[in-house]
Amino acid sequence: MNAGRSVASGLARARQRIDVADAALLMQHVLGRGPAWLYAHGDVALAPEAEARFEALVARREAGEPVAYLLGRRGFWSLDLAVTPDTLIPRPETELLVEQALARLDPALALRVADLGTGSGAIALAIASERPEARLVATDRSEAALAVARANAAGLGLGERVEFRAGDWFAPLDGERFDLVASNPPYIAEGDPHLEQGDLRHEPPAALASGRDGLDAIRSIVEAAPAHLVPGGWLLLEHGHDQGPPVRALLAAAGFVDVVTVVDLEGRDRVGAGRRPGGGTEGVPKGGW
């Protein structure tokens, strides 16, 4: 980029190479300004250092790196979270899992919640932000991901409410029982061509793929979950759009009741849920889902 180029001309050139919205986000990041400022100050000249930084980010985005990793941030629920290549990028569809968890958690009770495979901490922190009385434990086998999650919790003032533990799924929770367990585990089939496309190429493979049919992690979680749930406790799992029937079958085979598949805003199967029998919370939450 030539020295002295304006904000508008820099954006115009970038838009020939990458998505319009991505170009704007990268320029906002470089300048530390919001979208309204960019719109009103398109004729402002870019400092050489800012031009160089913007050009470098555009080149990396053009090569396929996710915008979230370039910015180091991603919005999820009502939270602004740090993300790195060590964590899965939180996605809007996972907010349905949070909604379903909140529907089953009485805000007046000090309920215990586990988030398995927490990554950046998105699910656990979103639940903690909405249920002040709840106490959460979040697990992940990646120490690097846990470092990001702990930093996010501290930055949001939730560090005292969410405990992070290293280990695979339930391994760090031996002997403990919870009112609700939630997880967004890997559920893409190994060898799926989507793993070589878009942002997925740059995300942690272990957070994406799980066995020939994508269900290995879900099988492990469902099998172990009854020993970690109180009577009446819920297990909630995000899964792929074509995995509703097999996930329901796995939950039913493990003895869960009130088994249901919840669809997302596009009408696709997205969250599987089942309740451990017993307890005083029979049936679906008040108001359904």
TrEMBL record:
Entry's EC annotation: 2.1.1.297
Gene3D superfamilies with a match to the protein in the record: DNA helicase RuvA subunit, C-terminal domain, Vaccinia Virus protein VP39
Ranges of compositional bias, category Gly residues: 275-289
Annotated transmembrane regions: none
Single GO molecular function: peptide chain release factor N(5)-glutamine methyltransferase activity
Taxonomic classification: Bacteria, Pseudomonadati, Pseudomonadota, Gammaproteobacteria, Lysobacterales
Catalysed reactions, semicolon-separated: L-glutaminyl-[peptide chain release factor] + S-adenosyl-L-methionine = N(5)-methyl-L-glutaminyl-[peptide chain release factor] + S-adenosyl-L-homocysteine + H(+)
UniProt gene name: prmC
UniProt function note: Methylates the class 1 translation termination release factors RF1/PrfA and RF2/PrfB on the glutamine residue of the universally conserved GGQ motif.
Family: Belongs to the protein N5-glutamine methyltransferase family. PrmC subfamily.
Residues the record lists as binding S-adenosyl-L-methionine: 117-121, 140, 169, 184
Record's protein name: Release factor glutamine methyltransferase
One Pfam family it belongs to: PrmC_N
Ranges for domain Release factor glutamine methyltransferase N-terminal: 11-72
GO BP annotations, alphabetical order: methylation
Keywords per UniProt: Methyltransferase, S-adenosyl-L-methionine, Transferase
EC top class named in words: transferase
Region of interest (Disordered), residue spans: 270-289
Domain called Methyltransferase small: residue spans: 103-191
Binding site for substrate: 184-187
